[in-house]
Amino acid sequence: MFKDFMDFMMNDFFITGDPLILGAQVSIGLSMVAIVIALTYFKKWRWLWTEWLTTVDHKKIGIMYVIAALLMLFRGGVDALLIRTQLAVPNLEFLHAGHYNAIFTTHGVIMILFMAMPLMFGLFNIVVPLQIGARDVAYPYLNSLSFWLFFFGAMLFNVSFVIGGSPDAGWLAYPPLSELSGSPGLGQDFYIWGIQISGIGSLASGINFVVTILKMRAPGMKLMQMPMFTWSVLSSSITIMFAFPILTVTLFLLFIDRYLGAHFFTLDGGGNPMMYINLIWMWGHPEVYIVILPAFGVFSDVVSTFSKKKLFGYKSMVFALMSISFFSFFTWAHHFFTMGSGANVNAFFAITTMLIAIPTGVKVFNWLFTMFRGRITFSQPMLWTIAFIPCFIVGGMTGVMLSVAPADFQFHNSYFLIAHFHQVLIGGVVFGYFAGLYYWWPKMFGFKLHDGLGKWAFWLWNIGFYVCFMPQYALGLMGMTRRFNEYNFDMGWQPLNVVSTVGAFIMGLAFIFQVWQIAHSIKFLKKEKSGDAWGDGRTLEWSIPSPAPMYNFARLPEVTSSDEWWEEKQRRAQGIEPKPLAPLEPIHMPKNSGIPFIMSVCFFVAGFGFVWHWNWMIIPGLIGVGCCLLARSFDYDTDFYIPVDEIERTEAALKGGR
């Protein structure tokens, strides 16, 4: 019996025989041991539980999202370097075909769902309540649950690399490759349940922030007085509410196909794989706009701040954001123009795809006109914003080229398409969130990141990006298609592939500079003495100390303008006395809770059981989820009041620090 157990562990449970995966297993094991030893040696277990694992503070939750996203950026980036290494030389045997398929599948899923999404939600949590003058999000407990569902969903997906086997049917898992006939192993089940669990958290976050923005704005703040980043969060969250249920249902149907032998997407059983492809892109294309809309909000706030001007065309920006959110649901079929939908269908989706470029272009002009005759400061956030504009223009133009159905028959599945969506997702989403991280970093931690190292990282990222992806446009036009792990010498693709691989490693070097920048800034800490770290802050988050206290605002602000803090500074400069402060009152706040963390662990256990078809694990996991829901429903001790004397002590300490 022991021999059978060991055979199962070594042949089925753990992935063996690949030195890269063995290295990952060893590094993961050593890292876990090091973390346990460090927490035990420094006696930080209680601190970890009380300050982080059970917190419902939106700012701490935002920081955990950001840390998780940066870790996933490292994992997804390593996958990208492995892909580019394999493709640098014809007929290279660095990654065998199955491993290559797994690598490009996990790279796409991680970068979109487990890097871009948590980085986005991190900024949501850190910034939105502060911008709208709120003390927390509408549902703090749900906010904590959202993070932990995302985290354990991501862990369930990532553990497949070393246990059971990674998914290898592509990042959108088209049938029949994702059916049992095409993926008989466990990788696709890890894919389904990792994304399902994290997707529930994403949907809950979208609902939470819609309610927060609509119901918890500071007194006097009308919708058309909200900062532009908050508008972008609202448009993105509304899109999440309508898009993510489609993903949940689609993956559940695929799970039923694989687990119960149904035939929703199998032709020989009366199903239709095209139904899956329609459904997955009905989520997939809005998902692109879900992650890029908040980046547009970041650029709007950054451009206005560092140009020292009010944002040009505020109303047109609001209209552009909301119209993109709406039109994003009418463009999905341009992903399969070549699949025989017919001329009329292709024409409709070609037109809608071209239409959505109009509000996108409006924003670029608004940012340029905001900078026009402004007193521009070339800070790190502003550099990323300026770099984004030409990059995104190229991405938008190539997107319009792909929207032309006859042309798409030539570009489809080629490296031209790879270059296009990386141009948009790196040049738009990643550059945008980097701008946001640098901009709000002092608000999160109370210090700026080192400027010199940041500029090294900036230039390496940008040089590496263009060196990597510009050749891929040419490779696509030369006929190189994606998803192939090798090619012959006589294709003539090697020189451009070598250049592209060099560019990828330059971007990897840029990431190392960013890690160095963070470590250097922590070691040589230069605390910001003013809550307005950049000196030109325009919105409410810059009116309070950095980092913000637990309750954010001792007194809720009264708002009369979209740039309320800028207007208040102008009034003070003119000698206009501020209104007398209202007396302090006890502040109502939510209590920490361990239930979201425990419930998410139970989801992980149930998901792991579903992957392996272990009822002895599925049933306890689901019972644990039910018990957590029951415990929460009978938990009446969920909040407390911060007394006035404690608020006064906190405010005095913060002012002393400034």
Automatic annotation (TrEMBL):
Locations listed in the record: Cell membrane
Source organism phylogeny: Bacteria, Bacillati, Bacillota, Bacilli, Bacillales
Pfam families: COX1 (PF00115)
Class of enzymatic activity (EC top level): translocase
Protein name: Cytochrome c oxidase subunit 1
Single GO biological process annotation from the record: electron transport coupled proton transport
Family to which the UniProt record says this protein belongs: Belongs to the heme-copper respiratory oxidase family.
E.C. number(s) listed in UniProt: 7.1.1.9
Pathway: Energy metabolism; oxidative phosphorylation
Entries under PANTHER family matching the protein: CYTOCHROME BO(3) UBIQUINOL OXIDASE SUBUNIT 1, CYTOCHROME C OXIDASE SUBUNIT 1
Alphabetical UniProt keywords: Cell membrane, Copper, Electron transport, Heme, Iron, Membrane, Metal-binding, Respiratory chain, Translocase, Transmembrane, Transmembrane helix, Transport
Main localization (coarse): membrane
InterPro entries: Cyt_c_oxase-like_su1_dom, Cyt_c_oxase-like_su1_sf, Cyt_C_Oxase_1
Entry annotated with the keyword DNA-binding: no
Domain called Cytochrome oxidase subunit I profile: residue spans: 43-560
TM annotation in the entry: 20-42, 63-83, 103-128, 140-163, 190-211, 231-256, 276-299, 311-333, 345-369, 381-405, 417-441, 453-475, 495-519, 594-612
A GO molecular function held by the record: cytochrome bo3 ubiquinol oxidase activity
Swiss-Prot/TrEMBL catalytic activity: 4 Fe(II)-[cytochrome c] + O2 + 8 H(+)(in) = 4 Fe(III)-[cytochrome c] + 2 H2O + 4 H(+)(out)
GO CC annotations, alphabetized: plasma membrane
Coiled-coil zones: none
Domain of life (superkingdom): Bacteria
Topology versus the membrane: Multi-pass membrane protein
Source organism per UniProt: Paenibacillus catalpae
